[in-house]
Design goal:
Helix 1 links the parallel strand 1 and strand 2. It is globular and about 45 Å long. It is an alpha+beta fold and about 210 residues long. Helix 1 runs parallel beside helix 3, helix 4 runs antiparallel to helix 6 and helix 7 crosses helix 8. Strands 2-1-3-4 form a 4-stranded mixed sheet, covered by helices on one side. It has 9 helices and 4 strands, in the order βαβαββααααααα.
């Protein structure tokens, strides 16, 4: 497999965690999003959205991180990243989507560049925007964890799921952008449990060869 990635990309971070948990080896191709590598014609031909990650598996080209995670789950079912029963799977996917579909899309570089370059918001206003949307997602996750009897060491059950992968990639940018995390003790406990696992820790942006 070949993964097109960028160390700071939270979507790439999600895929790196899943590949590590599944024990799948890969070749990394690094794109520097701040330098515009994703806009090169060669990469545009691979991913017309000009974003990362893109995962190549043989002749198959995969894009969008949650779709990639679902593909990995179906092709490499052990260890499972989704619970066995339908209700639990739906709950886990719901937690994942708070991060991947609601919070993260509002803070990606192309959105932040639009805020500053086109709308001319100040650096302070941009930071407030980022912190607001990250905090909104964290508060929702914290509340849902409190209601969920199967939450404990992990979001659901006794092993990491897609929900935990997406929780980690909600907390990580919150740390980067200095968001206060004291209001979220449950999810921070789960975050620490996850980051004690090498599959999570080794996928962290700071551990990537292209990290700056």
């Amino acid at each position: 497999m070949k993964l097109y990635t960028y160390y700071r990309s939270q979507a790439s971070f999600r895929v790196r965690i899943a590949l590590n948990l599944k024990g799948i080896t890969r070749e990394d191709s690094f794109l520097h999003l701040e330098k515009g590598d994703q806009f090169a014609a060669a990469y545009r031909a691979i991913n017309p959205q000009m974003v990362v990650p893109t995962l190549i598996d043989g002749d198959i080209k995969l894009f969008q991180s949650l779709a990639i995670l679902e593909y990995l789950e179906e092709q490499f079912p052990e260890p499972p990243l989704l619970p066995a029963d339908a209700q639990a799977r739906a709950w886990v996917r719901g937690i994942a989507l708070i991060n991947a579909a609601d919070s993260h899309p509002l803070i990606v570089p192309r959105v932040c560049h639009y805020l500053t370059d086109v709308l001319k918001v100040s650096d302070e206003q941009r930071l407030a925007w980022i912190q607001h949307w990250l905090g909104a997602g964290l508060q929702a996750i914290e509340t849902l964890l409190a209601e969920h009897s199967a939450s404990g060491v992990f979001c659901h059950g006794d092993r990491p799921t897609i929900a935990d992968i997406c929780l980690v990639t909600q907390v990580t940018p919150a740390k980067t952008f200095d968001l206060a995390l004291d209001p979220y003790p449950r999810l921070m406990r789960i975050y620490e449990s996850c980051m004690a696992i090498s599959a999570f820790a080794d996928a962290h942006p700071s551990k990537q060869p292209d990290a700056e």
